[in-house]
Amino acid sequence: xxxxxxxxxxxxTTPAAPxxxxxxxxxxxxxxxxxxxxxxxxxxxxxxxxxxxxxxxMDDGDPWTHADHKLALDLIEALHAKVRENYAEPAGSRDVxxxxxxxxxxxxxxxxxxxxxxxxxxxxxxxxxxxGGIVAIAFLAQLDGRWGHLKNCAHETxxxxxxxxxxxxxxxxxxxxxxxxxxxxKAWRERHEARGRRA
Length: 199
What we know:
CATH class: Mainly Alpha
Strand content: 5-15%
Oligomer: single chain
Helix content: 40-55%
């Protein structure tokens, strides 16, 4: 059996999004590499649970089922769709339904604490509460405008999500060292080949 190699840091060369939005960014960027398999693979049940436990969204002893893992993968896809809305590409009804299902299962409730800003807090614990905590952060980020700075990497083979820190909102790649340099090298090769064909 091939041994999975977890990429816990996800796109580790990608600058972190500010505050709690970094957690959303890393959740959407979770993936695995497996020996003998080319490219990124969806995160396994073990990796997703590890992430939720590591980030304090659920306890290690909490049950984690196949259905929980499938819902987590669906949530990752739905959040990617919500990022695409930043490019005026509306999320589909299926994506919205997934987010609503997570919200309902978590029992997200508004809280107006004396210390700190208002927040959404899951009533549920375990997997439902953990995934609900992710939706709560995404929801508040949409309200305050931070979500609009999240982008999908422009490189054709990359699914990385990054926070555009640029002043003019012109960032294209999750990592200049990785995807940006690949894209520039490809563009140079294409220009060079085109000049060769014209010669």
